[in-house]
Design brief:
It contains 9 helices and 18 strands. It is of the alpha/beta class. The strands form 4 sheets. It has a 7-stranded mixed β-sheet, with no helix packed on it. The protein has a 6-stranded mixed β-sheet with strand order 5-4-2-1-14-15, covered by helices on one side. It is globular and about 75 Å long. The protein starts with 7 loop residues before the first strand and ends in a 9-residue tail after the last helix. About 2% of the residues have low confidence.
């Protein structure tokens, strides 16, 4: 076993989405209950710090109730008399605080478990440049880092941490719109600064919150874009729990993806068992991640059926509904068996994907009324879909090779952003000879409309 005086113990989590469905009478407390469990485990394990990978809040402007409950939890579990065994060796001016130091070095506060967090796409700075995390930072409850002042030229300075003989360089990159950050990476304007002296003695940890899955060619951050000197990446934003470290695509560092602690969509990735991780790093730069299952997460079961294989008469609507009712009852029974004798069992989330080619779909809301007292999402139990009529033509080996070459060239050569956004539509309109603006600058108008539409910044245009 490693020497505990030289071993960092860091609890890692991400995408807590506090305040999600806070007005829902059934699911309104889910995000807070699980986050409290995370803090309880951190206190029980006596971790050195908590590291959060973004989207602590679900809304860009959390309600007063959400802010209050969040601050209450941090104060309850992260303040105390236990000594903090880590120290900061770097310039702390890169932390987003006006008080010049991390919260556990402030003599006016008794911090027992320091919390370090970047922002995500849900709780990023907007309007006046303030994020919800800035409120927690000024209250000395969270050490907020990873905010970029210039998203077209990003320079990330590390927080240099030491415990005994073990040294960690902690890099943070809060969420930037994927298309914009992709372009910045292509232009080689994302720079991670390294310590000047004794660089090899630092274990390099990056926290970021971006698309990892390739939703489109330029709407994600590819692992090959990140610096080779990194040792470990805590990847936020993706909700599927992949807590066990995976070797990166370029084989130079490891990635852990804790996933969300509350299901914010009824998707396959959200239905998997949710965990946080205990990251251990020792003085030899060896590390391991111990998965910690979360017990307060609402059960979620997702299955699929195909009506054509069930030997049902397409004209007998009652028989089809009875078949679906039996399927849902079986799913509920399965969840109840898994919960066993657990005190205060929770109503589960149930999702049944129904392939209904050749059949008429029923009304999902009316169907769900049969299960109002048994499931947490009665109006969203059924998801009807049909088979695709035409299959995509198979590519020849030559066309596949050419596609791979094109994708490689895209990664090496900057291309214009092709995702349609409201600012793109405005720009195309203003390119008309008779449609130029005479009073408002085009760039400022684009930014104001983005804040108004995406971040609910009601005064963006009047400013």
């Amino acid at each position: 076993d490693a020497d505990p005086t030289n071993t960092f113990n860091i609890l890692v989590a991400t995408d807590n989405h506090l305040g999600y469905l806070e007005r829902d009478p059934i699911r309104g407390n889910d995000s807070f209950a699980t986050f409290e469990e995370i803090l309880q485990k951190a206190k029980m394990l006596e971790v050195d710090m908590i590291l959060l990978g973004g989207d602590l809040f679900h809304d860009n402007k959390p309600s007063r109730g959400t802010i209050y409950r969040t601050m209450e939890l941090f104060r309850k579990y992260c303040m105390g008399d236990r000594a903090v065994n880590i120290e900061i060796l770097s310039d702390q001016s890169h932390l987003h605080t006006r008080f010049g130091c991390v919260n556990f070095e402030d003599p006016n506060y008794n911090i027992e478990i320091p919390v370090f967090s970047i922002h995500g796409n849900h709780d990023d700075p907007a309007g006046e440049g303030l994020a919800a995390l800035d409120i927690l930072s000024v209250a000395n409850l969270v050490n907020y880092f990873g905010k970029s002042d210039n998203i077209d030229d990003v320079t990330v300075y590390p927080i240099l941490l030491r415990k005994g003989q073990t040294k960690i360089a902690l890099y943070g990159l809060g969420n930037i719109r994927d298309e914009r950050l992709y372009r910045t990476f292509q232009q080689k304007k994302v720079k991670l600064m390294r310590p000047i002296e004794d660089r090899d003695s630092w274990w390099n940890l990056l926290v970021l919150h971006q698309n990892r899955a390739a939703h489109s060619p330029k709407n994600h951050i590819h692992e090959c874009m990140l610096d080779n000197f990194l040792d470990f990446v805590l990847w936020g934003h993706e909700h599927e729990c992949l807590i066990d470290p995976q070797v990166s695509a370029i084989g130079k560092y490891y990635i852990t993806q804790p996933g969300s602690s509350v299901a914010t969509s009824l998707s396959e990735g959200e239905s998997k068992k949710k965990h946080v991780g205990l990251l251990k790093v020792d003085s030899t730069q060896s590390f391991k991640v111990v998965p910690i299952p979360l017990d307060t997460v609402r059960p979620f079961l997702m299955q699929a059926v195909e009506l054509a294989t069930a030997d049902l008469d397409p004209n007998d609507e009652e028989a089809v509904i009875e078949y679906l009712v039996n399927e849902v009852n079986a799913m509920i029974a399965k969840v109840e068996d898994e919960q066993g004798d657990r005190p205060n069992p929770m109503k589960p989330l149930i999702r049944l994907k129904v392939e209904y080619t050749g059949y008429a779909p029923c009304n999902p809301q009316r169907f769900g009324q049969r299960f109002v007292d048994r499931v947490a999402n009665p109006n969203e139990i059924l998801l009807f879909h049909r088979k695709r009529v035409q299959a995509a033509p198979k590519r020849s080996k030559e066309s596949t090779d050419q596609l791979e070459k094109d994708l490689l060239m895209r990664a090496l050569r900057p291309d214009p952003i092709d995702t349609v956004k409201i600012e793109d539509l405005i720009s195309s309109f203003l390119n008309e000879p008779k449609s130029t603006l005479e009073i408002f600058p085009e760039a400022e108008m684009n930014d104001a409309l983005h804040l108004y539409v995406e971040k609910d910044e009601k005064h963006a245009i009047t400013k």
